[in-house]
Design brief:
Length: 329
């Protein structure tokens, strides 16, 4: 339609706009779906309809229909495709809508959450660090709980979005975002051995993109060399080697890493519990004796001992292996 009936579109938009207030959900869905798709084409800007359509869609973010709200979020994200040069102008409204979408409570199938993360990824590619500086921490904090979501699509989208945030890890935001990466590091590393292949690819992407922000040449080189989405990973060997670099370059973060790792001992996924025990073991195995005070060894030992009673043999094995390294201290 945008290709062959462009001149008629303003009239069509004018006719359809009132139906967004229809009492019939199907009519609102039809119109919002059309407007959302329209925003993915540059003809909206060429015909000077962007303000009108954007205003109409923004009004549907609080619609009673979950489907309408989801399509409204999709439409706003499509602005980054159809009118990328306008994203900066509307960045405040767009970013607020996407972050609110991730907070959606009445979203039983997580469709709005998924659409919000997808739309935010699109918008982030079109804004600058100064545009997002004030809400960078908020976005990072909103993403992290989704790392442990039981739905694979949610975890995949969340890790991908976190990877896209890496382009803002410079300038005045660098130090702030470095802390966010360190806070998310353990989750990213443990999910490199996630039960789902798409989640693994998303974690590889996020770690590879964020590595340069951390400022460690050793860690960056490891991530760039080993974490390719379509290549296999010798997980145990990788984690052992990485633990040495983390100890060397981020000794001050080590206890935070371990405390976070302990929280994963209670994960609902046996793979993640086992991965956490494995990582803890490698830290103990490679930690120089003179730096042993950097980690609460007693707490770690007690927590690993609890995992010896885990119902899954793989987890018990990794816990036993980790405990075996305590002889060094």
């Amino acid at each position: 339609m945008t290709k062959f009936a462009g001149p008629r579109i303003p009239g069509i938009v004018e006719t359809l706009n009132p139906l967004l207030s229809s009492i019939y959900e199907n009519q609102r869905i039809t119109v919002i779906a059309f407007f959302a798709e329209l925003l993915s084409n540059h003809v909206v800007s060429e015909l000077m309809l962007l303000d009108v359509v954007l205003h109409s869609i923004m009004g549907k973010l609080v619609d009673s229909s979950c489907t309408v709200r989801m399509l409204a979020i999709r439409g706003l994200g499509n602005i980054a495709i159809g009118s990328p040069e306008k994203v900066k102008k509307y960045s405040t409204k767009l970013l607020a809508a996407m972050t609110s979408g991730m907070d959606e409570k009445e979203d039983p199938n997580d469709l709005i959450t998924l659409e919000a993360m997808s739309g935010l990824s699109k918008i982030l590619l079109k804004v600058e660090e100064r545009d997002i500086r004030d809400i960078l921490i908020h976005i990072s904090l909103r993403i992290r709980p989704f790392f442990e979501n039981e739905k694979e699509r949610i975890r995949t989208s969340a890790f991908t979005l976190f990877g896209n945030l890496s382009r803002f890890g410079h300038g005045e935001s660098k130090e702030i975002f470095q802390d966010q990466i360190h806070n998310a590091m353990i989750s990213l590393l443990l999910h490199l051995n996630d039960p789902n292949a798409d989640v693994i690819k998303a974690c590889k992407f996020a770690l590879r993109m964020n590595a340069p922000v951390l400022g460690s040449e050793l860690v960056t080189e490891m991530f760039q060399r080993h974490l390719h989405e379509d290549k296999g990973l010798h997980y145990g060997e990788f984690m052992n080697d990485l633990s040495k670099h983390l100890i060397k370059d981020f000794l001050d973060k080590l206890n935070c890493y371990i405390v976070t790792t302990l929280s994963f001992f209670k994960s609902s996924w046996a793979e993640i519990r086992g991965n956490a025990a494995m990582f803890a073991g490698f830290i103990i195995a490679n930690l120089p004796e003179e730096n042993s005070s950097c980690v609460d060894l007693e707490r770690l030992c007690i927590s690993l001992a609890v995992l010896l009673k885990d119902p899954v043999p793989f987890v018990r094995m990794k816990a036993a292996e980790a405990l075996g390294y305590f002889y060094r201290f």
